[in-house]
Fold this protein.
Amino acid sequence: MEPLQVDVVHFYPRENAQPHNTVKFEVVNEETPVCTIVRRGQPFNGVVRFNRPYDENDDLVQFVFTLGDKPQLDTQGSIYLKRDAITDKYTWSAKLLSVQEDNTLSFEISTPVTMPVGCWSLRVVTRTKSSQAREVYDFDQDIYFLFNPWNPDDQTFMEDTSLLQEYVLNDVGKVWVGPIKSTRGKPWLYGQFDACVLPACMLMLDRAEVPFQHRGDPVKLTRAISRVVNSNDEGGVLVGRWDGEYGDGTAPADWAGSVDILAQFLDTQEPVQYGQCWVFAGVVTTVCRALGIPSRVVSNLVSAHDANSSLTVDKYYTETMEEMDYDPNNPQGADSIWNYHVWNDVWMARPDLPPGYGGWQAIDATPQETSSGQYQCGPAPLEAIKQGVIGLGYDVEFMLASVNADLMRWRRDPDEETGFSMVDTNNYHIGRMVLTKKPFVFDPLGDADRDDVTALYKHREGTASERLALWNGVRYSERAKRYYAVAASLTNDVTFKLRDIDTVPIGKDFRVTVDIENTSDQGRNIKAALSATSVFYNGVKADLLKKVEGKIFVGPQKKEQISILITAEEYLPKLVEYCNIKISAMAIVDDTKQSWADDDDFQVLKPNIDIKFNEDLILGTPSTVELSFRNPLDRALSGGEFRLSSGGAAPRSVRVPSAPAAAGGLVAATLPVQPTKLGKINFVATFKSNELKDINGAASVEVFEA
């Protein structure tokens, strides 16, 4: 008898998607889906139809699943169809369920819970027991196998599976951006179920040259993702840029989600211009959630970049307390403090580490320092960061410094052996707050969805546990020991306090003030300097707005203050993206040589875009949306453009110019939308003009059946 010939293989993409939690993927919801997306370690069903009846005693049907072009033991599943197939969580099996009259067999495939994830191919090989002649059928549709965080045996398993609704299945989120006093949640559309995302993920993993047999290990995979979302090593997704010059690409502030970025990367196969930390982090969460790895975006407010592994952030000043813009002890690069820095937490067990280090792990796709020779960072267990256990993989030391380094200030001093004497040390400045989005809550207009997770990264600042964790890290680092040894012996009898500036609406003046108190019994002569500078969010200075220097005498046991006023006319022309301003104050006491310095960051606040729907949104029915805000400046806006993005409407992203807006006038535009999904959908709007950039807004709205 001739071997069976396959007429058709069908995997019920939509029906299998339900128990596998993949039903949100766009490609399985098409009218006739041609792609199957299932999770590893969980059975799924299919049917095969042959050209003649199946003879259970003589016909052999073999399913050969392969990943990559050179299948090995880990990247191939070769199984014979059997009625009594035994399923095992670590092996492949194909169980015959029923034989139907029209030469059709229904079957169930079981897969190993450790198999590599990705886009697999299927070949069906048929022969008879009595002959070596074979028929081969190559299935022409994609089959994606993903991580399965719902399965207790999967390395990505999350015990509280209800949280997977947020960390795997939620396709919209928030990223907290801005300095500590004016931080706000910026809505971000992850869009991990869009048709372009899984193919873009496959391209990324190929570009990162992740061996196929490693693609089932979330430790290796997330480390590779942190490397390939930036383009510093070959062929990554996004080019990082922080200098405000984005004319040959898209400004980072103009992105409202990941899908446009991944679609462009897939289409051009070239790195996309441009990204900054929260853009990298938004794309990482999209990729991880698409692949089935629980992930969230995390913002660290006042974040240290420790360039020399001292577990300190060091600022240097001249003898007269002028700030130096380089590190005289580290010519490769100076430490820096970012207003905020955004990275990701990913969830997994860590069988490669001692017990107790599973759960959330930090990875960072923003290229700052190399790790093992490439721009990658993590996964670093949050528990190791919190306890200062810097010997564990990967990059715990760098992450510990990011959230818990001490800020140390040094003044050039020829009398000291090192050439510098310590001005002061601040244990509280770095890692003020670590924020992420609260599960199951989305607040497009406010911050009700803000979740403070600082306690997962560090003990409460100033407690014995927090100091011990940092010293635990210092103990393992000879360089850090030298820095911390100097910090023990400082005495001062004049106190200085730089007053906080909380909020400054754009276009309003503000004042920088320092309060001085002389606690000694003698008068003190003090030289002081106050300045305000516009800065990029990563701490790089842009333009000096204003600076004053002077001398002041403070009598014994007396208080004085010094201040400068900075007007809107002085700062508006010099603001850079995100409108961050750094105020700095420095002083030196002539009589005792006591020195002091402090600085603070704040953001000039801008209005939000109001998103308004004039009628109910009906599935498939064209409608309009109105975007508006009031121009806060005393000058007209020119070259304005609104951009509206949504994961549940067509077009996915639309841009429209706005008419010139007078000073104080309304800036508005009407845009077309057509809902493509039922239920709650989210819109994110951005606006830019020649005079005003990075204006944002968001809205959630219900879509009804026709």
The longest helix spans residues 277-291. The chain has four domains: 6-146, 161-478, 491-605, 610-704. The mean pLDDT is 91. The CA atoms of residues 684 and 698 lie 4 Å apart.
